[in-house]
Amino acid sequence: MKTCAPLLLAMLATPAISEGTRELGSHEHGVGELNIAVDGTTVAMELHAPGADIVGFEYEAETAEDHAEIDAAIATLSEPLTLFGLPAGAGCGVTEVSAELESEADHDDHEEHEKHNDHDHDDHDDHGDEHAHDDDEHHDEEVAANHTEFHAEYTLTCSEPGALSQITFAYFDVFENALELEVQVVTDAGAAAFEVERDAPTLDLSDIF
Question: Pick from 98, 55, 62: which is nearest to 79 by CA?
Answer without folding.
Answer: 98
